[in-house]
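Checklist before submission:
- one chain only
- standard amino acids only
- sequence pasted in full

Submission:
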Amino acid sequence: MEKWKINSETATAVARLAVALAVSVGAMFGFDVDGDGIENAVLAVASVAVMGWVWWRNNNVTLAAQEAGRVLRAIKGGSSATETVGEVDRDGDR
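Returned file contents:
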């Protein structure tokens, strides 16, 4: 099964649809809803979420990711994968 592939155009279309629905529902119940304000709020939340995701993906936050980073650096330095994993196990570098 293939993962979803959402591009920026799809995300923008979904955000605009959500704003339009919020404005419509608000008008239906008699609220004076500012569509631009809602759109800015939705985009601000989306921006923070995307920045958090990018930060998480580009930094070795978990112990497993830190160990994988050490193994990758060792392999790039010329060691084989089995030697590197053995070194990590012996050193107790977890």
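Reviewer check: The chain has a mean pLDDT of 79.
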